[in-house]
């Protein structure tokens, strides 16, 4: 695709495969412009190979790369990247999707190449992810946006320190909604539904709510369901009693931010 150039994906695990699938699905990167480095065979990489991607070519091929995407575990990135550095061209950008590895830490191990950090969700595989992007370098940031905007709702963060908060909301958020859905099903059971019926209703409601959300303000969406004096309003009042919903979520996000910082 014009503007992105040759992309090297290092690591084709859970997130790396999701990114690869998203790029091909949304035609963000043409398979012919992809190099994938992976110690073992991966289904997503094999699909890309069949369309023209190169898997583990001689490292000389990296000289033309415009972006190197690091999608390995945070504990191993130095060992993976160090042997590749002599092969990179001057114009390469390093894009890290690794949680908790800061730009200064990356720069200290990598040297002079511009760095962009992106925190995506695996929903990118279906072109429906969420991604937070941060870079101190304009060209690197633009490249990060170009690679993720087609497959994720993307926000650009003003400060790298906000990456922990963005990860606590977006990266962990789906799990919070699932936990809420589970609790809603259990509450339905307590109100007399059998377990399977409560589970079907709670899950279908989450799906339906997500489908109906669109771009409308959340307050307006709530107002459309909760008429004054009605049953939904009674439920919402109980949920927010003494501000407990807000307090609970403040604590939830703060705990995730703290853990992100500890791991960083
Ligand atoms: N999973 C998520 O939802 C998510 C979300 C946001 C950020 N992240 C970040 O994404 C990164 C990857 O996470 P993950 O969940 O995808 O982990 P993962 O499934 O364990 O994937 C890591 C991959 O790195 C590969 N690898 C190991 N050594 C390598 C080498 N020398 N060269 C190239 N690849 C190598 C592994 O290959 P083998 O399988 O062959 O060992 C493995 O497939 C982490 O840093 C994590 O913080 C993940």
Automatic annotation (TrEMBL):
Location in or out of the cell: Cytoplasm
Record pathway: Amino-acid biosynthesis; L-proline biosynthesis; L-proline from L-glutamate 5-semialdehyde: step 1/1
Domain Pyrroline-5-carboxylate reductase dimerisation: 160-263
Entry keyword annotation includes NADP: yes
EC number: 1.5.1.2
Residues annotated as domain Pyrroline-5-carboxylate reductase catalytic N-terminal: 7-100
Keywords tagged on the record: Amino-acid biosynthesis, Cytoplasm, NADP, Oxidoreductase, Proline biosynthesis
Ranges annotated as spanning the membrane: none
Known catalytic reactions: L-proline + NADP(+) = (S)-1-pyrroline-5-carboxylate + NADPH + 2 H(+); L-proline + NAD(+) = (S)-1-pyrroline-5-carboxylate + NADH + 2 H(+)
Signal sequence, renumbered to the chain: none
Family: Belongs to the pyrroline-5-carboxylate reductase family.
HAMAP family listed in its UniProt record: P5C_reductase
Function description: Catalyzes the reduction of 1-pyrroline-5-carboxylate (PCA) to L-proline.
Protein name: Pyrroline-5-carboxylate reductase
Species of provenance: Brevundimonas intermedia
Gene that produces this protein: proC
């Amino acid at each position: 695709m014009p503007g992105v150039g040759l992309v090297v994906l290092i690591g084709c695990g859970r997130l790396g495969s999701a990114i690869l699938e998203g790029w091909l699905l949304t035609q963000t990167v043409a398979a012919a412009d992809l190099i994938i480095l992976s110690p073992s065979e991966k289904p997503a990489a094999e699909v890309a190979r069949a369309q023209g991607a190169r898997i583990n070519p001689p490292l000389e091929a990296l000289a033309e790369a415009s972006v190197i995407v690091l999608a390995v575990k945070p504990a191993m990135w130095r060992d993976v990247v160090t042997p590749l550095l002599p092969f990179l061209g001057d114009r390469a950008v390093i894009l890290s999707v690794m949680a908790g590895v800061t730009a200064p830490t990356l720069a200290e191990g990598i040297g002079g190449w511009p760095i962009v950090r992106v925190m995506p969700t695996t929903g990118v595989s279906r072109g429906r992810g969420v991604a937070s992007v941060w870079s101190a370098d304009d060209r690197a940031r633009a490249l990060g946006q170009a690679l993720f905007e087609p497959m994720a709702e993307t926000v650009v963060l003003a400060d790298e320190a906000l990456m922990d908060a963005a990860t606590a909301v977006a990266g962990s958020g789906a799990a919070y909604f699932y936990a809420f859905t589970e609790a809603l099903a259990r509450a339905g059971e307590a109100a007399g539904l059998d377990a399977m019926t409560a589970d079907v209703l709670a899950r279908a409601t989450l799906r339906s709510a997500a489908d109906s959300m669109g771009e409308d303000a959340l307050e307006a969406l709530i107002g459309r369901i909760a008429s004054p004096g009605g049953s939904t309003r009674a439920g919402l009042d109980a949920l927010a009693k003494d501000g407990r919903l807000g307090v609970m979520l403040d604590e939830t996000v703060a705990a995730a931010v703290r853990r992100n910082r500890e791991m960083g």
